[in-house]
Amino acid sequence: MPKPKAIIIGAGIAGIASAIRMAVKGYDVEIFESNRYAGGKLAEINTEGFRFDAGPSLFTMPQYVDDLFKLAGKNPSDYFKYEKLEETCKYFYEDGLRLTAFADLDKFANEIENKTDSTAIEIKKFLNKSEIIYQVTHQVFLERTLHKIKSYLHWDTVKSIFRFGKIDAFRTQSTANESFFKDKRIRQLFNRYATYNGSNPYQAPATLNVIPHFENHFGAFLPKKGMYSIITSLVKLAEDLGAQFHFNKKVDEIVYGDEGKNSKIKGVNSDNLFYPAEIVVSNLDIWFTYKNLLPDFPSPAKLLSQERSSSALIFYWGIKGEYPELGLHNILFAENYKAEFDAIWNDQTVYEDPTIYINITSKHIETDAPEGFENWFVMINVPANNGQNWDELIAIARVDILKKIERLLKKDIAENIICEQILDPRSIESKTGSYQGSLYGNSSNNQFAAFLRHPNFISKIDNLYFCGGSVHPGGGIPLALLSAKIIDDEIRKTNY
To answer: In the chain, N or C: fewer CB atoms in 10 Å?
Structure first.
């Protein structure tokens, strides 16, 4: 008897994870990817002897990747190796303050106490609160669907509902952090975690203070061969399980038909050919899934019209010289943080003094840059694409970024840039299928955001599922992987 067919649309990390989970279940799996490579936002660039991770650069919660290998009965280290970082980030401020976020909590807390007006006790109290939010939310809000009654019938869900006040949903992140820290620079340090899902700390709920727990409790990591090796290792696992990848293969339509009360998945159309399937999983941004692949199905207008997350402007610079004051992850803060977010969210433009993130993997992976050079991934947060004059904004931002780096590092690097590539909201959309170039689908700028993300299924089309950062539970590598797990759980209960 032939295996049932599962078709995955999109080879982003959530799509690959879904393919692995479907193959383990016994499905014959095919993945259709419009690009010539896998990974979606988690891609890489190779140019003039430099290698850059093009998208996500911070690796947390590696157990969610390891789980896929274990699920398949494989040893994760046979496919994929990573190291825990002793320093998670270096922070630079306009007043000359420089801080190192150490993985060792006591060392990190003492670093802040010794150099700022905040105390080690403040740091530990805050991170304890972060852990409480995680304990209340992770099983209920992150690892299960929020869109079926059965999810609320578990005892741990009932306990979490009674502890709902602990997740701090009715204050903004910024307001909460004002209550935790005396020093405004430390408030700024922890406010920045809202940007991990493309949100505004002056609007987003303090529930987002769960994010520091991922980094400060579980740790920050770096794959031995760079972030893109997450993708190459998972692709190999999927292929070892029998999954087939079709690159440069765009899906044109999801096909479904009426069967009783609900419609049911039939398969997909691609290049004027029909490919039948019992299950279809779309890893494409939910906006494009409805608009392009389900054109005749009534789309949920309210869900699709929600505020989008922020986007990014990234410069990939091959830099001559070595800069020992910088680490793997570096933040050069804007002096007026609120003004930066007002520019992004209210004025829909790029702030004149942006916070700059610099990622330099050659600090750990020598082959990522020629000897005597470094590979700089230089990113600022920008609004999603709403028709702004990006060519003009990019030119201005490049000048502002170089001035700020020179000001804070006391070094002129402009003349040491020997090669450059640029990614902006327009190219993010065209390369990754993310509507308006938003990195995380919808923003999380209100306390109900977790409930307003699109579910991982459509109740009126049986066996059609959705994964990735534009649907529940959200964006970023850990949550994208959890979206695949939620689908896995649903299919197990529905089809077996």
So the answer is: N
pLDDT value at 281 more than 80: yes
Residue 97: which of 79, 78, 116, 81 has the closest Cα? Answer: 116
For residue 184, give its domain range: 123-218
- Whether 254 and 290 have beta carbons less than 8 Å apart is answered as no
- pLDDT: which is higher, 474 or 156: 474
> How confident is the model over 225-246, as pLDDT tens digits?
999 999 999 999 999 999 999 9
Question: Can you read off the two tokens belonging to residue 140?
Answer: 């209920």
Q: Are residues 206 and 232 in the same domain?
A: no
Domain shared by 288 and 142, yes or no: no
Cα four-point dihedral sign 198, 199, 205, 209: positive
Task: Please give the tally of structural domains in the chain.
Answer: 2
Are the C-beta atoms of residues 234 and 68 closer than 8 Å to each other? yes
Asked, as a colleague might, if the bond just before 455 is cis with ω within 30 of 0, I would say: no
Q: What is the pLDDT of residues 180-224, one digit of tens each?
A: 999 999 999 999 999 999 999 999 999 999 999 999 999 999 999
Same domain membership, residue 177 and residue 148: yes
The answer to whether 309 touches 199, Cβ cutoff 8 Å, is yes
The answer to whether residue 132 sits within a structural domain is: yes
Rounded Cα gap, residues 467 and 486, in angstroms = 9
